[in-house]
Amino acid sequence: MKLLFCGTPEFALPTLRRLHRDGHELVAVITQPDRPRGRGLKPGPPPLKVAATELGLRVEQPEKLRGGPGRELLDRFHPEAVIIVGYGEIIPADLLGPEGSGPHYGWINLHASLLPKYRGAAPVQWALICGEKTTGVTTIRLDEGLDTGPILLQADEPIREDDTALTLGERLAERGAALMAETLRRLAAGDLIPRPQDHSQATKAPLLKKEHGRLDWSLTAVELYNRIRGLLPWPGAYTGFRGKPLHLWWGKPVETFTPSSSRAEPRGGAEGPPGAVPAFTPSPPEGPAPGMLLVEKPALYVACGRGTWLRLEELQPADRKRLRATDFINGLHVRSGERFESAI
């Protein structure tokens, strides 16, 4: 099939490589312009440009598709379909056009959720934050709405208990590549009938902002754990400690336990099988206030909502490197009874 491929992030790379390997005619790859990146803010290419160049593909980087550039690309290349994977711009309605006026197979989008759930820019992250057990990938034919077009194919993917947005995103990218390949095969064979989404079941996955990373210690430990793993790598989970920001890289819920002057291991605690998340037993109402720290060397715990506890494993104080909990305790002389500050 003769294809234009539009995309930008790492998530798009497996699909590009799969379609190239399958022998499709990728007449051009359209991606965002080079942007300032890294500490030096020097202009750098988006990941898809690097991959396309390695494959010897033509790369186009219009500032916007709307207002002429998109129509010019369609008229120049005459693709049978346009593939969209995380391009970073809503395709204007005039390019989609009435049925029969654009590419024969239309504009086909790969989305990292089981639509209509998690429409928007951050479906992987919000599925984790919301505590979903299963997600997946969907191919749709674009229409004028945001991820509202008719569904072509879908594939489920279980969410593991130790998944982060990075690990889950990598698996969904590979799963999505296979799904897009199957979608094109079946479209060409003429045996794929689009089906409308049930808009009454739609949920949103808006673009993440810095403030989404601020932790509210009145949430339960499970809810906070889901936020930590869903917010990796950006904006990350953070709180305040001694008047300064503190980044929390990792921590896991544990069952309630009775503190002691010596180390007290929570029941069914952190030494279980990798990825295991124990069930919870709420503490009494008179338990410690959310955000209070408990030092049980070498472990560090923080009290969360509804009497639950989070065992902190990796933290990063402002202007310092990432520290394991024991190094954080010793290096900053952390004491039981100190508090994390949600409002920093």
Provide keyphrases for this structure.
344 residues; Rossmann fold; 2 domains; six-stranded antiparallel sheet; 8 helices; 15 strands; 24% strand
Q: What is the terminal-to-terminal distance?
A: 53 Å
Global mean pLDDT: 90
CATH superfamily of the largest domain: Formyl transferase, N-terminal domain
| Beta strands, count | 15
Number of helices: 8
CATH domain fold name of the largest domain: Rossmann fold
Structural class of the helices, strands and pairings? alpha/beta
What is the count of structural domains?
A: 2
Name the overall outline: elongated
Largest sheet: 7 strands, mixed
Order of helices and strands: EHEEEHEHEHEHEEHHEEEEEEH
- For the largest sheet, list the strands in their spatial order: 5-2-1-6-7-8-9
Radius of gyration based on Cα positions: 24 Å
Could you estimate the helical fraction of the residues in percent?
A: 10-25%
Strand content: 15-25%
Point out poorly predicted stretches: 261-285
